[in-house]
Amino acid sequence: MKRSADRNKGDVPDVIFDTNSGVSYKKGKLLGKGGFARCYEFKDQRTQITFAGKVVMRASLKPKYEDKLRTEIKIHKSLSHPNVVRVYNVFHDSDAYYILMEKCSCLTLSEWNRNRRGLTEPEVRFIMRQLIASVQYIHSKGIIHRDLKTGNVMLDSEMTVKVGDFGLAAQLHSDDERRFTMCGTPNYIAPEIIATRMSQYKGSQKKVPLVGAEMTPKTFFHGVGASLPQGVTMETLIRGHGYAADVWCIGVIMFVMLYGRVPFESTNIKEIYKRIMRLDFMFPSSTEAPVGDEAKDLIRCLLKINPADRPSLKAVLAHPWFKQWTPDRLHRRYLKEPPEWA
Ligand code: ADP
């Protein structure tokens, strides 16, 4: 759930009680804060097992968001995969909803990236293999995540990759079903999501709200639309989004983990959207980041502007970049310092 932080009011009690199972959980340290949620350690007082508990205060939720939270819980609870954060128990009391999940005790990819600013290719392959396995599984269940980004990919104590935060996920009823809502995080949003949103307002004089910015249809269709990459037509981008939107995000994550920054960087969100639509990104020079040609080729394949041109995740794993060495496991010290092979 992504909403403003000040709505996350109210004290979380030191002990919470699940009336269904009769289990109480003791609150520990704060693990992180999201838009609506706060995440604490919670220890099962019977088994002493520690979970990560996402707490959403009911007072902070408008009825519409309560429905969204229920969808998030339903989708997340239905998933069971080694690379997806596991939900173990969900309950509520009069004050809050509690979602008890497996605890990912290392960092998010975003924090890891902040520490190291560009990882080595074998480390990124290690992450990508597990991230792709996770997303293949999620898609096999008919679910699009729609908010894949470094901040939503965590590492547990064994450095196993775990995808979390299903707050924007959507359940499809057939593989070719398309969704039409504007959602995601600006740096990671796929072009078809932006274009579809704008097409819903084509001809209007008003500014169209996008996530974190606004744009007039005129600027979009006559400005941005006129500078689409060669061979791409707006027609192909205004038909909604499906699984391929997650494939785009995987491309952005790969770029970020190799280069330590996002591909469509700008302090101005509208400018980010314009750059995404123009596919306006460049690979930093090899003196800045020594990344090989096969990695760059794979990023170009993932960041195809037309969703129909993006590869399937199976095809991604067959790319020559994945034929190169991948470590079986990574040491936790690499969270802070480069590995020996760097
Ligand atoms: P929101 O949906 O409000 O964005 P998130 O699900 O992203 O909330 O959780 C907020 C923060 O809590 C995350 O950025 C992360 O730091 C922490 N967190 C979430 N889930 C876990 C987990 N399973 N283990 C450890 N920390 C977690």
From TrEMBL:
All copies of the Protein kinase domain together span 25-322
Catalysis: reaction(s)? L-threonyl-[protein] + ATP = O-phospho-L-threonyl-[protein] + ADP + H(+)
Q: What is its EC number?
A: 2.7.11.21
One of the record's GO molecular function terms: kinase activity
Q: From what superkingdom does this record's organism come? A: Eukaryota
Q: Where are the transmembrane segments?
A: none
Which controlled-vocabulary keywords does the entry list?
A: ATP-binding, Kinase, Nucleotide-binding, Serine/threonine-protein kinase, Transferase
Q: What is this protein called?
A: Serine/threonine-protein kinase PLK
Write down the species: Aduncisulcus paluster
User: Shown portion of the whole protein?
Assistant: 1 to 342 of 616
